[in-house]
Amino acid sequence: MGIIRDWIYEMGDTFLDLIFPSGIYCINCDAPIYNKPYGLCDSCREKIKWIKGRTCGKCGKPLENWYFPDACRDCVNEKHLFTKGFSCAVYDDSVKKIIIDLKYNGKGYYAKHIAEMMYQKLNEQNLQIDFIIPVPLHPKKQKERGYNQSYLLAKHLAHLSQTEINDRILIRNRYTQSQNKLSLINRQKNIKNAFTIINNGYICNKNILLVDDVYTTGNTVDACCKEMMRYGVKNIYIITPVIGKNE
Fold it and tell me: Is the dihedral angle over the CA atoms 241, 245, 54, 85 positive or is it negative?
């Protein structure tokens, strides 16, 4: 089934590329472009707050030069379970439309361009990764949406990095509300025990790269990590295209 599913996705990518040729229109403002990096016009690319310089040593959020600790306030106050996180840009109005279109507006073909950003960020790190796992969607939500955007990001990132992807180890075992509509406390309750490992021997003593679309509080990835850590995973790295900024 996995091979058939992957073939269908590949055919879908080919079909979508015929309808929406890559590198023709900016994925943010629809301005005509020609093979610009990440499918973005120069103007949109310059508006994005790319993450450079000082970052939180745990989650990867940007840190101001005047800020003294090496961890952001969230990571000082919360014990996150992953080894280290990385992201490409700050989640603000300059990228919000791209992420919303990717997740909710049927523009899964954006994942190819977004994965290019993630690959560049990953390439800057000196990581040993055994395989990539996308944060899973519940089957009901995936049917409603038509695809899992995290899987699409992971698939393209795996192709670029020549790394194995496996989305049949970690599953979401119950339907949950969207995290972005909930308070911090309710986010933690909403996602608690929502994930299950179904092939536990496969991750023992392995270095995992967990892929999601947005990092905000870290509740979702922590819930994934908690389940994987039960089965002896060695390291869990997190990568997302965008990340929230501490206020």
Answer: negative
Domain containing 145 — which CATH number? 3.40.50
Find out whether 111 and 153 touch, Cβ atoms under 8 Å. yes
Q: pLDDT truncated to tens, each residue of the chain (247 aa)?
A: 444 445 444 545 555 554 555 668 999 999 999 889 999 999 999 999 999 999 999 999 999 989 989 999 999 999 999 999 999 999 999 999 999 999 999 999 999 999 999 999 999 999 999 999 999 999 999 999 999 999 999 999 999 999 999 999 999 998 776 766 666 677 777 788 889 999 778 899 999 999 999 999 999 999 999 999 999 999 999 999 999 987 5
Domain that holds residue 66: 50-243
- Is-contact 212 85, C-beta < 8 A? no
Q: Determine, yes or no, domain membership for 16.
A: no
- What secondary structure letter does DSSP report for 38? G
Please, where are the H alpha helices in the chain?
2-19, 42-47, 73-77, 93-104, 110-123, 139-145, 149-161, 184-191, 219-229
What b/e readout covers 47-58, taking b as 16+ CB neighbours within 10 angstroms?
A: ebebbeeebbeb
**Number of domains composing the chain:** 1
Does any domain span residue 3? no
Q: Within a domain: residue 27?
A: no
